Amino acid sequence: MTLQANCLELLNGNKLKSKIWIVLMTLLVSVMNINIQANEAKYKTKRVPAEWEPQEAIWMQWPGYWEKDYELTFAKMADIISRYEKLHILYNSDQIYTEAQESIRDIESDPLQKNIHWHKVPNDNAWMRDNGPVYVLNDNELRIQNWNFDAWGGAFGSDIPFNLDNGVPDKVGEILGLPVDHIEIVHERGNLEFNGSDTVILNWSTIGDPSRNLNYNKQQAERDLKKYFGVTKVIFIEGIPDGDLTKGHIDGIARFIGLRTVVVVQCTTQSLCQPGSKDAEIYDKAAKIIEEAGFSVIREPIEGFVKHNGQMFDTNYMNWLVGNGFVIVPGFGNPDTDIPAKSRIESYFPNRDVHLIEMLSSWAAGGGVHCHTNDQPAFSISK
C-alpha cells in the first residue's frame, strides 16, 4: 500500500471516529435534557398560589393575655376582612373569646356575623403568618405543610413558648379536612414570597440562621424549596435590617405584586435608614439581585419615621395583606407618610380597596398585618 493510500485510510478512520464521537455526545446531551425535563415536570404540578389569587379565607390567632395591646388592631382587621371574605379566628380560652367579641363590638362591628368563624385552638402567639399553615396545590389537591417553628430561633428570648404554635397547622388541617405534610426544617411563612408560578423569594439570613437550622447551606435549601414548593427559581436575598429580630423576613423587604413585578423597600434622606447605610445596602442589593433574576422592580420609599413608647420606627409599609378585593396596610398615625403610602399601594393593586390601619403597637413588637394573618387559597383554583 502506498503512503498516499495509508494516509487516506487513516483520515477516513479518524472521520469515522469523529462521527461516532459526535453521535455519542448528542445522545448524552439528549439523555441529560430528558432527565432535566423529567425533574422539572415532577414539580410542575405542585405550586404555592400567590396571595392575590382567589382566597377561601384568612386566619388569625387572637392575642393572648400578654399581647392585649394588639386587640384593637385585631378588631379592626377582623371588621375589614369579614366584609370581603371568611375569617377564621383561633382563641385560647373562653375568657379570650369573650373579650375578643367585646373588642369587635366596641368598634360597632358584629363578631357573630356569618363570615367570622371562631375556633378554640391552643396557641402561643398572635403571629399566625409564621407558625400557621403553608398551603400547596399538588395536582390540584390543596394540602397543608407544617414547617417546624421555634419562635424565630429564640430571638425574643428562651422563655417564649412555641410548642402549641407548632401544632396549629395540624389543627387547621383537621378543621378543613385537608391533609398535612410535616417538613422537618425550621422556617416561617413570613419569609416566603411567591409569584404563584415558578419563583420564591426569601432571605437566606432567616432560613440559614444556625439558631434555626444548624449546618444548613444554600444548596440544600434550594433543593428543599424546589422539592416542597414546586418552584424552579429560588431567589435568595441576604441581610438583617437593624432591629429586626426575625432576622430579615422577606415580607418587610420585597413583595410580589404581579407575576414578574416585585416591590422592594428603599431608604431615603427622610428615613432613619439613610442612603448608604447598612440597611440601605441590604435593600439596594436585594433590588439588584431580583432585577438580575429577570424581574421588574419598583422601589417603595420610606419617607419618614415615628416615635412610639420611646422607640423610633421607620414608616415601612411593606407588610400589607392582600385579600379578595382588598388590601390592608399597616399605618403609623402620620398623615404625611400614611396618605402617600396608601396612594402608592392603590397603584400597585388598582382593582382592590386599600385600607390603612394604625398599628404601632404591633410594629413595636415586630410586625404588621401580614405577620398577624394567614391566607388560605380557594379550594377550586388551579394552575
Can you offer a commentary on this structure?
The chain is of the alpha/beta class. Among the domains are: 28 residues; 112 residues, no CATH class. The chain contains 12 helices and 19 strands. Strands 1-5-6-7 form a 4-stranded mixed sheet. The chain has a 4-stranded mixed sheet with strand order 4-3-2-19. About 3% of the residues have low confidence.
Topology:
Layout: H1 3-44, E1 46-47, E2 55-61, H2 71-84, E3 86-91, H3 94-106, E4 116-120, H4 128-131, E5 134-138, E6 141-148, H5 163-166, H6 168-176, E7 180-186, E8 193-194, E9 199-203, H7 204-207, H8 218-229, E10 233-237, E11 254-258, E12 261-266, H9 278-292, E13 296-301, E14 305-308, E15 311-314, E16 321-323, E17 326-331, H10 335-348, E18 353-358, H11 360-365, H12 369-372, E19 373-377
Parallel strand pairs: 2-3, 3-4, 6-7, 9-10, 12-13, 17-18
Antiparallel strand pairs: 1-5, 2-19, 5-6, 8-9, 11-12, 14-15, 16-17
Quick gist of this model?
The protein is of the alpha/beta class. It contains 12 helices and 19 strands.
State the helical fraction: 25-40%
Total strands: the figure is 19
Head-to-tail CA distance between termini: 70 Å
Q: What are the low-pLDDT stretches, counting only 5+ consecutive residues below 50? A: 22-34
Coarse morphology: globular
